[in-house]
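Following up on my earlier message about FE2/S2 (inorganic) cluster. Here are the inputs again, as you asked, copied directly from the submission form:
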Amino acid sequence: MPRNLERAELFVLICQSSDCKKKGAKALAKQAKKTLKEEGMFRQSKILKTRCTGNCKRAAICGVLPSNTWLEKATESDVDKLIKDEIKALKSSD
Ligand code: FES
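Thanks, got it. Here's what our run produced:
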């Protein structure tokens, strides 16, 4: 198993291709990192910057695993809420 992946409980996927970048994808990645740190989940998580997912008209695209929940036209506050909801779901399943 590649380093840092085996201990990840939560994955945040953020498209970093051109249309999503034009719609603020870089800021979304920064927000994801900030939220994970604030929630104390940064070490147990992995932010994956993806290539185009084929949803460019819905840019910016962001998703979380394990719930496989995706946002379209995501904003920084949407990403913050998505991650917090995912953490809450993970903790309630413990
Ligand atoms: S550029 Fe992000 S889905 Fe295509």
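One observation from looking it over: The radius of gyration is 13 Å. Hope that helps, and feel free to reply on this thread.
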